[in-house]
Structures are given as C-alpha cells and as structure tokens.
Amino acid sequence: MARSWDVFCAVVDNFGDIGVTWRLARQLVAEHHQQVRLWVDDLDAFARLCPQADVRASRQTQAGVEIRHWEAQWESVEPADVVVEAFACRLPADFEVAMARRAVPPLWLNLEYLSAEGWVAGCHRLPSLQPNGLSKYFFFPGFDADTGGLLRERELLARRRAFQADPLARRAFLQGLGIDVAANERLVSLFSYEQPALGDWLQPLVDQQPPTRLLVPEGRVLPDLKAWLGVDALRAGDCVTRGRLTVQVLPFVSQAAYDTLLWCCDLNGVRGEDSFVRAQWASEPLIWHIYPQDDEAHMHKLEAFLDRFCVGLEPGLADDLRGVWRAWNRAEAPGPAWSALLAQLPALRAHAERWCVALAEQDDLASQLVAFAARQG
Ligand code: TRH
C-alpha cells in the first residue's frame, strides 16, 4: 500500500544524518512506491550528497523524493501517514500538535543510531507515550534478526559483484576520478575524522611493497595529512608521492560514486554510520573510525561490533584487526599489527564477503519500516 511519509533530518554535524535519511527516502520511493517528503534543515549539506539540488529552494523534487527545507509554516502542513524522526531530532511543536489532530494519527517512529550492542534488540520497536497523546516507536537499525536491519537496496550486491568482476569498468570509473592505478598498486580509501597519529600509519607504507595509492576525499583528515606530507596546501586533484606511497586527494563525490569507490579499493577507511555500512556491502577489508562520544561510549560500540565481526576469523588475524581498529580510534601508533594486517588482506577480504552474505540474510531497513507501518494499520 502506498503510504505518505514525512522524514525529518536535522544535520547535527558531518554527513551521516542526511546520508542515511536521503538514502532511506530514495529507497522508500524507488522500491516501495511510497510518497516521501524529506525535511532537511541544512540544504548545503544535502547538496554535497546530491549536487543537482537547489540550495535555495524551499521545496524541490529529487529522485522522486519531495525535499522540503525545514522552515515551513507548520500550521498549513498536514502530517503524513508515517512520521520518521531521524536520530531523535525534535519535531516542530506545531507539527506535533497537528499529528495529534489528524483523523487517523500518524505512525510516529524515532529512527535511532546504529549500534551492534546487545541491548538494541530489546529496545527495538518499543513504544513511548508522548505529551501529545501519541506513541512514538523506537526503530533501531542493527546487525541481527531482532533489529531493524541495515539500509540495502534490492540490487546492491548484484551490482557490486558485477562491477568487481569487470576490470574495465573499474579502470574506467577510476579514470573518471583522475585515478591512474598501476597494475601492482594497492588501493586504499580514507574517509575519517581528524587523525593526529596519521603519520605513524602512513610511514610504514613509504617503504612497503606493494606500492600503495591512498585516496582521500576532501574532508576533516586533510590537515593531518598536510602536516605529515609537509605541504602548504592540499586540495582535490593533488597527488603527492613519498617513496612507495602516493597520496591522492579526491573531490567529495555523490553517494553512488562513493559506493563504487569503496568497491574498487583493497582497504577502506570509513567512519560514522553510513560509509561504515556501505563498506560492509562493498565486501572489502575495512577500518572503522567511529563517531567519538563522551565517556568513551563509542569504544563500547566499537567492541560490540568487533565481537560480532570477528566470529569465524582466524584468531591471529582477529587479534591484529582488533589491535588496528582500537589504535586507530585512540589515535595511537598502530604497532606491528598494522603491517601484519596489510599482509593478510586476501584473508580479510574472504571474511568480509562471508560477513556481507550473512548480513544480507536479514531484511533491509526500508523493507522493515514499510512492513512495520503495514502491521500498525
Ligand atoms: O559524516 P559522518 O561522520 O556522519 C556522522 C555519523 O553518522 C555519526 O553517527 C553521526 O552521529 C554524525 O554524523 C552526526 O559519516 P557517515 O555516517 O559515513 O556519513 C557520510 C556520508 O557521506 C555517507 O552517506 C557517504 C557520503 N559520502 C559521499 O556521498 N561522498 C563522498 O565523497 C564521501 C567521502 C562520503
């Protein structure tokens, strides 16, 4: 059944909030034929992911999704059948009043942040009574059958596998980004937060075989990279070589192109939530820079994910992986685990594919949201 949806996104910082909601909104339209309005408070952030967007338009349609700037006259907005508040962003007060006034009240969902922790399954889909008299349901993405799953488009894995089996397509895609890879070169992408220890991670690559090409989309890690390279400026298109390591700065590309970049690399440094999930669908080795939180809460989340991910991994490799991920997130030098891990990329790749296949057995997040809405009437 075609329902109407209001998806609310407040951009706190970075691109994760808009990255997830924009992807979800597109999938609800394309695969489930829902009618979706995406309310965004920061159109500049949206335009980084959707370059054809008009940053001045209060209303526009992109990929079948009605994009609305979050500055409406709320009295005149009739709430949709389903209201999704992403990442606990507060809805406009007048809109909450209108929701309660609706003849059939909307299904109200709080789409939560991703976590691999065990408590998530117990909280998934729990209702909570709100001051306007409606219940709001917590909807948790996650890594097992008791959670809401992960965003995954229907044909994603088939498209990814076809691409990875086609060296010409890979070469053409990389050339389109100005990347000329040598035959024996190892490709590594790096999308991370600030990393003060970056030099300790890059130095071993200067002397190591095979040569490495590090692809870095413009963003928060560039000052650390610039400092280590000892250059005055770094911008998209720049290429700097130190020994066997070539660093190439890329422009920030569309979500679809970023996916394809992940599919091309032998190792992906990813961060936050959405790029982290996309790297798992890419089925290549990854290192996760988790979004830092107060009181080291993020380190518990990191361990919870590692506990799941390392099942079935050869114990020595699992130790190296844990050591590398912990050191990266604590901004420490990696120690010998880093070179050991790089030497085992083929084994890690095989494990990443097994992990990806197992994850794909659960229903994807958009399908689960649609099914939940159907069950609630
Ligand atoms: O930008 P992030 O750090 O977002 C974070 C997290 O979501 C975090 O949990 C949240 O609390 C915080 O925001 C507010 O990382 P993330 O989640 O990977 O989002 C980045 C998005 O940008 C993702 O959709 C992929 C996209 N992207 C592109 O479209 N093109 C690019 O070139 C790159 C590098 C990323």
Spell out the key features of this protein:
377 residues; alpha/beta; Rossmann fold; 6-stranded mixed beta sheet; 15 helices; 14 strands; 41% helix; transferase; EarP; Protein-arginine rhamnosyltransferase; glycosyltransferase
Q: Can you tell me about this structure?
A:
With 377 residues, the protein is α/β, with parallel strands linked by helices. The chain has two domains: 4-151 and 362-375, Rossmann fold (3-Layer(aba) Sandwich); 156-359, 3-Layer(aba) Sandwich (Rossmann fold). The protein has 15 helices and 14 strands. It has helices spanning 16-32, 43-49, 93-101, 119-123, 156-164, 167-176, 198-207, 222-229, 255-264, 274-282, 297-309, 315-329, 336-342, 345-359, 365-375; strands spanning 4-9, 35-40, 59-62, 65-69, 82-86, 107-111, 127-129, 135-139, 186-190, 212-217, 239-242, 245-250, 267-271, 286-289. The site of 2'-deoxy-thymidine-beta-L-rhamnose (TRH) has 23 residues, from α1, α9 and α10.
* Secondary structure: number of strands: 14
Strand content: 15-25%
Termini Cα gap = 10 Å
Query: How many distinct folded domains?
Result: 2
- What hetero molecules are in the model? 2'-deoxy-thymidine-beta-L-rhamnose
Radius of gyration: 21 Å
CATH topology of the largest domain: Rossmann fold
Query: What's the architecture of the largest domain, going by CATH?
Result: 3-Layer(aba) Sandwich
CATH H level of the largest domain: which superfamily?
A: Glycogen Phosphorylase B
Instruction: State the order of secondary-structure elements, H for helix, E for strand.
Output: EHEHEEEHEHEEHHEHEHEEHEHEHHHHH
Biggest beta-sheet profile = 8 strands, mixed
Individual helix count: 15
Derived from helix and strand composition plus strand pairing, the structural class reads alpha/beta
What is the CATH C-level name of the largest domain?
Alpha Beta
Catalytic activity: dTDP-beta-L-rhamnose + L-arginyl-[protein] = N(omega)-(alpha-L-rhamnosyl)-L-arginyl-[protein] + dTDP + H(+)
Family: Belongs to the glycosyltransferase 104 family.
InterPro entries: EarP (IPR016633)
Function: Protein-arginine rhamnosyltransferase that catalyzes the transfer of a single rhamnose to elongation factor P (EF-P) on 'Lys-32', a modification required for EF-P-dependent rescue of polyproline stalled ribosomes.
